[in-house]
Amino acid sequence: MVTYRQLWAADPAAWRRAGAAWQRAGELVGRRGAEVSDTAAALRSHWSSPAGRAADTVLGRVRVRLHAGRPALVEADQILAEHASRVAQAKAMLDVAVTSAAALGVLVDRDGRTFPDPSAPRPDQAAAAHRIRAEITAALGLAAAADRETTRRLGDLAAAAVADWPVEPPPSRPSPHADPGTVRGWWAGLTEAQRRWLVLHEPALIGRLDGVPVAARDQANRLLLAHHRAALGHHRQPGRGRRADGALAGLHAIEAQLTADAGPRAYLLGLDPAGDGRVIVAIGNPDRADNVLTYVPGMTSDLASAGGELTRVLRVARRCAELGPTEQTAAVLWLDYDAPDFVHEAFRASYAHDAGPALHRFQEGLRATHDGPPAHQTVLGHSYGSLVVGATAREHGLAADSLVFVGSPGVGVDHADELGVAPGQVWSSTARNDIIQYAAPSLDQALERLGLGVTPLLAPLFALRSHDELWFGQNPSHPGFGGRVFHSDPHGHTGYWEPGNAALDGMARIALGGDHQRAVR
Fold first, then answer.
1. Where are the beta strands (DSSP E) in 88-176?
2. Nearest Cα residue to 508 out of 248, 247, 323, 296
3. What is the pLDDT of residues 304-355, one digit of tens each?
4. What is the pTM of this model?
5. Which backbone phi and psi does 311 adopt, to 5 degrees?
């Protein structure tokens, strides 16, 4: 059992740093493996004798063994980072209990025992002392459970690294578009050695397959990072340099988050540099979180803008941690669709309809792979991303308890009850100076008659007030839509995540669910 003193003195950040050190070791192993491959290639071109062939065989074995060990090093980081998160949660529970004790006239000694404070007598002190002691016991119990689980997981990892050499599984594989429940069943039927083989030899499949646990997808995608970086460098051709430079900058921002040794650990759940680029990154492990927020960005979102979009996700995750310190919350950037690049493209709903199947599968996958009781799942769409969320919910269904729209041009329906979740869990916010609210159908017709086409940038020239009907249906922030509206300070179309904005608090409280939502205004 973890003692009160031990938990009070525990340093979750030290565990996080230890995990990051194992991660860096994995990166070093990857570089050394590449060097071994280069050396073997050079030998083959200059040393063709029996001795040369024997040396090439030995180097090949060394490279295979180095490569085979990399997922285990990533997994060590995952385990230690998750342990750090659970210890931090236990410490937060302890802090809440001790802080409330002082307000209730209860004393807590150095061993965690509670007593009524004789200097501040109150009629309910004995009951309060008993309740505080129960809260302290719960915090210690969580820390002890985390300690036991981490010990077991690290022991299993060490044993597997020695005994469970990767073994090729049977040839059948799920389709990338397979139902996540089916994928989860297939994965559960494999041995640990077979799973390791798939992560090593088929990372492109495992890394994008909804229904495969988050930890395995993260391991697979991290193995592919060097390949993706090389692919972007290859596309730096004349006339395309600026675009490739932007994508590389976005990839560097993602890698900086993936290799950070402080804060919640990031999990890479998808990355494709082709075209404008697509990426899925989770801050915290969705499979082990109490709450999971999926954020869908809007127009102009691409790999080049991933750094800025990740900043938004991080701000919501941090605010969730501040408002709900005793809960585990994961926040996901989901940019796995081709977002419109220009305003004339954003006038079309086809981008949102094309994105629907992938967003549906992703949310279903989160449900399928989650450990323990279901998490409270929230899907948040900004700008055109709100249409993606709305269209997916209407046409395919979304595994979500709450839907949130900010800066929305309409979500493809005229009433909240068309979205497949309880209307009381459909939320919207539009800043009073957000230009999006001026994009109304009546304006469409006026501009079409002028032969100009409609864009949000031209709208203020023709409208002096907000409209109930927007490009893609009823304004979700209008009372007639039937959802719930939360306040946003006037920071324009992109300022909903600005520190101190009431909208940031609103998004975080909705993601936390339950009692936190009662404080949303």
1. 106-108, 114-116
2. 323
3. 999 999 999 999 999 999 999 999 999 999 999 999 987 767 678 899 999 9
4. 0.89
5. -60, -40
